[in-house]
Fold this protein.
Amino acid sequence: MTPTPITTTAEEKKAALRARLARLATRDETAERYRRHSNPYIARTLDGLGIDVHYVRGEGTRLYDAEGNEYLDFAGAYGALPFGHNPPAIWDAIGGVQQAAEPSLTLPSILGASALLAERLAEAAPGHLNQVWQCNSGAEAVEAAIKLARAATGRTLVISTRNSFHGKTLGALSATGRPRYQLPFGAPASGFMHIEFGDPDALREAFDEHGDQAAAFIVEPLQGEGGIVAAPEGYLAQARELCTSHGVKLIVDEVQTGLGRTGRLFACEHAGIVPDIMPLAKALGGGMVPIGAVLFGEDSLTEDFGLRHTSTFGGNAFCSRVGVRALELLTADDQALVRQVAERGDYLLAGLRRVSAAHPRLVADVRGQGLLLGVELSTNTDIHADQGLFRSLADQEGLAGFLCGYLLRNEGIRLAPTYFANSVLRVEPPLTVSKEECDTLLAALDRGLDVIEYGDSRRFFDHLLPKPGPRDAENNARETAAAQLPTRPAVPVQPTGPRPGEPRWAFIAHPTDLASYASYDSRLGLDGDQVRILFDRMNQCRNVDTAAAMLVGKVRVETDTGETSYGEIFALPYGARRLLDMPTAQATALVQEAVDDAVARGAQIVGLGAYTSVVTANATALSNLKVPVTTGNAYTVAAAVDGLEQAAVQQDIDLAAASCVVLGGAGAIGLASSLLLAEKVGRLILVGNPANRRRSEQRLAAAAEAVVAHLAGLDEIPEAGALATAVRDRSAQGSTPGQIAAALATESLLTWSTDAEAVLPEGDLILAATSTPDQLIKPELARKGAAVCDVSQPPNVGPQLQQARPDLRVVAGGLVEMPGRRDLGVDFGVPSGVTYACTAETMIIAHRLHEPVVSHGEKLSVDLVRMLRTEAARLGYRLYLPQQHAQTQGGSADV
């Protein structure tokens, strides 16, 4: 009998599609609701990293989203999931509360469930810790610990360690050793000081100086958010001894490490010490309820604390019953689960070290105890072969966060970076994790590191790009492509670093158009618009610890004279239009931070490229500058004028009689270029911004007068054109610059306009030096046989001009050849061995640090332009003018 084929009707297909759209709509509505009403900053970060998943079901070590995709959870809620998601035994305890109808909130009264939990904790605790105060969180437990110590000692000073994390309430945050997380909230409050973690001598010195004021020393036995850093051997024992001898309470913060996480019930047991006070939380809630507790001895209990530190919800029956059940599970069968954690932790640590050994350049360290482990990724940019996102993210300690997104979306593995050490992957699964699940993680992590090491940025960031198709199809494609990795990883670049006494410079720019976006990471294999979308998404997860600019490359420049300089090149991850659209103060702050970061890294001079100079008013809006900052405009002017003059020669244009149109004629580059061009051309037309016509006309009139004053003030003008000759004649007759400018305007020798389209057809020579991202020079506007030079960033000339008008000579006058045509190893979207004049100016001035003269402000000195032109020639920088040169920066302007 022939089976009846199974077919899907059109209605069934529509129903399936409607169901899928409904799921997507629900997911999108949930994310939007969270963004709008819960925390837009966290929502933005989750989306930027690609970990913005809404989980609808959890069971053990597994999580599931609305589409049924399964994820293996190795983040473990930062240690708050001792038994995984929805453990049945904890639900039984919750059900028992419901079945017994036990009242949960009965203050003031005797709290039976709370007393039982306190008794069980006291039985399990080391040494004399037989007192328990219950609360709702780890931060609240730390607050109570601080108050206990101060009340017991009559002192107020609390000593803690740098890079520690103790919570986010004011007292706990004051103890936390991370200033950037404290300052916005007025922390640390008075009565706190911080010393180096793991350094007993630092603690001894603190006690020697402040011992009579110190109430407590609070320390984590293993710094979790600081990067999974265990206390050195013997450190806690020495701290115990020092605290005892000075009458200081030792607080060991076990909020994350306590209750089995490190392979002992309490991490302090590894060191064989008993603290005076021990905050707990996280695992005590069994992965289901918020609860915290502080364990301490009777010698730390005072009437002040007992009667004046209370909590409405602390010790409630509901959470206490859960805490009792969680402790029973941890201590059952002579702490069998805790002993299993020690065994499983050793197994996982050994596996992570094997993965690390397979990627020795990429993984800097593997460390931790039990099931609180960390994998530190290297921040050495030299291990990444090419300019691109891997190099930039490594420098910013951002690679681990994006690896978490990659593993989640491609491998179904859930990890998270540590809070303060962003280059460290936190490996913190439920205590019930199996060996098989550990093996799954190890294999996935190895594959993810392979993708980075092979430089496959396209695959690594693919999940952040918008595309159709369900996740299953993507996974199938991933598995098929897994065998297509290169047989060898990309060869890393040779390590580059400054030599002793070598001049050091930095240059800061940003993508100016879609072509420069595309050139940022050639291994992405994406067009500029897709790269821009990727950048925009990644920018969402930038925070206070993220550097303003991304490192593009580190280079050494050798001049024709044998001199060398060392430079670092950075890019703000925003396009031209986005920088312009930002509030001025925000854009200036970004550039200021990038400059400050570059100086902190050792730069002795910093150059600004593209719109970084525009948004800072040619660097005048920057403050507290510790080194010279240059806009690069002076050498850009020299290159622009030289380029236009040489293009004119190639077009057989007589400069002395030529009409020259300068777009952006009132700007810094346009005006300085006009001063030099005015010496040789027959006629000059200055064009300004039409957006504010009255202001532009005032500035253009002032610029025209400045041109006249410049020409009149020169002793001699070799190869003077008709314009310079006319000015000299009238000046000799005693006319003022204003009178001369007015007369020349009537004779059309020196005019100005805000209508570019009207005057462009008059130009034998066209110089574009604007700050607009629009392509102003359209094919139909240029005069036949004209010479065009574009130094605007983004360019005012698109590739269609050269294609549609082969009669024109179009040059990018802001480009120069490096000395010896040496390749910088950084892709600016220009030919090898070629760079922008503004970048070259920074390099040139690096050899004049004894007497730095920089481009700064709205007015550029013609003498500075001439000096840089001479100095550039001496060092070996030359104008880049190939025989057939189309505009290098093709593609539409940044949107």
